């Protein structure tokens, strides 16, 4: 497992800044989705994970990206919960996630 984390870190370091940001955000979404599915059943995962990542700090994104390698942990859930409780995230979920959810009904 440590080798995988080291390899992922080295691969990320070899990328440009824009590539690093894209890869980190994408990896972070992979860690966020299982937490959303467990804690908020029925929520549309794609728009909800976008809202969370868009309202996360760089530090939170990199922590979540690291969790995507090892799998979600209690720390992952804490970070997601903290981001979800921010007014900007709630607003995003209401405007982006709610319409998708209502379309499914």
Tell me the span between the first and last alpha carbons. 42 Å
Q: Give the % helix.
A: over 70%
Specify the number of helices: 6
User: What is the mean pLDDT?
Assistant: 83
Low-pLDDT windows of residues: none
- Radius of gyration (CA) equals 14 Å
Biggest β-sheet description? none
Strand content: under 5%
How many beta-strand runs?
Answer: 0
- Shape category: globular
Tally of individual domains: 1
What's the helix-strand series?
HHHHHH
By helix and strand content, what is the structural category?
A: mainly alpha
In words, what does this structure look like?
It contains 6 helices and no strands. It has 105 residues and is mainly α. The protein has one domain. Helix 2 (17-39) crosses helix 3. It is globular, with a radius of gyration of 14 Å. The model has no long low-confidence stretch (mean pLDDT 83).
What is the secondary structure topology, with strand pairs?
Layout: H1 2-13, H2 17-39, H3 45-54, H4 58-70, H5 74-84, H6 87-104
Helix pairs in contact: 2-3, 2-4, 3-6
In short:
The chain is 83% helix and 0% strand.
Features:
single chain; 105 residues; mainly alpha; 83% helix; 0% strand
